[in-house]
UniProtKB/TrEMBL annotation:
This is Methyltransferase type 12 domain-containing protein. The lineage of its organism: Eukaryota, Viridiplantae, Streptophyta, Embryophyta, Tracheophyta. It comes from Gossypium mustelinum.
Length: 239
């Protein structure tokens, strides 16, 4: 059992998402609570940002590392015709409950997905218009698998958006993505409705557009490494 929250995701009164935060989802290996069982601040920030920056009407949307699924559910609320929420197996029952609570069973799917593995229901033919991620930049070693998954689910016009709390190791994760040929572009953080979304106004958040380089070349990789050095310099100040 958990706590059900009604979360406003836009100025319109009707734009609210119901999310149940679980207290009994446990990692079978460590015995610790799974951190994806509750809504993280970055998910709140992303869900308050996307209504005024992205058009979801008729779009297909994938959320990676969905946790409680707030950004993906917000996309469904804003008109996406297909949303796929993905995470590890232990979090899927909670995601299914949240889909049902919001009445989105006709267009929101829940699938198990481990980054970098090809044995999930997300095949190479399953490309999406928009990919959403929040608070996924924790371990730089996980970025190799994340990069593989992004290449598999992104087409030429796919937009990838990621919100994150800025931590000392965030730059290392972004470096790893850029070393794989991705471009990382930070959006204007002054536009984030942080004060309306989270309580700790002293925490730094950022939203990045991750641009996959579908056709790799030596030039793109060289540019990625150049940008990587610049990002590391900038984000070391958050530590």
């Amino acid at each position: 059992m958990g706590i059900i929250r009604e979360i406003p995701v836009a100025e319109a009164a009707a734009h609210k998402v119901l999310v149940e935060e679980l207290d009994d989802a446990i990692d079978s290996i460590t015995g610790r609570p799974l951190t994806g069982s509750w809504v993280w601040d970055s998910a709140l920030v992303l869900s308050r940002w996307i209504p005024t920056h992205l058009n979801f009407q008729g779009k297909s949307v994938l959320e990676l590392g969905a946790g409680a699924g707030l950004p993906g559910l917000t996309a469904a609320l804003l008109g996406a015709n297909r949303v796929v929420l993905t995470d590890v197996q232990q979090l899927l029952p909670g995601l299914l409950k949240n889909v049902e609570a919001n009445g989105f069973t006709d267009r929101v799917e829940v699938k198990q997905l481990v980054w970098g593995l090809d044995d999930s229901g997300i095949t190479e033919s399953s490309t999406f218009d928009i990919v959403l991620m929040s608070d996924v930049f924790f371990d730089s070693e996980d970025m190799i698998g994340l990069g593989k998954t992004l290449r598999r689910v992104c087409g030429e016009t796919t937009q990838v958006w990621a919100a994150t709390e800025m931590r000392p190791w965030t730059g290392e994760c972004l470096d790893q993505l850029m070393a794989q040929g991705f471009q990382v572009v930070e959006q204007e953080t002054s536009q984030l409705s942080v004060h309306a979304a989270v309580q700790d106004s002293d925490t730094f958040f950022a939203i990045f557009q991750i641009k996959p380089t579908l056709a790799e070349s030596s030039k793109s990789v060289l540019n990625a490494w150049s940008n990587s050095a610049a990002i590391s310099s900038v984000y070391s100040s958050y530590g």
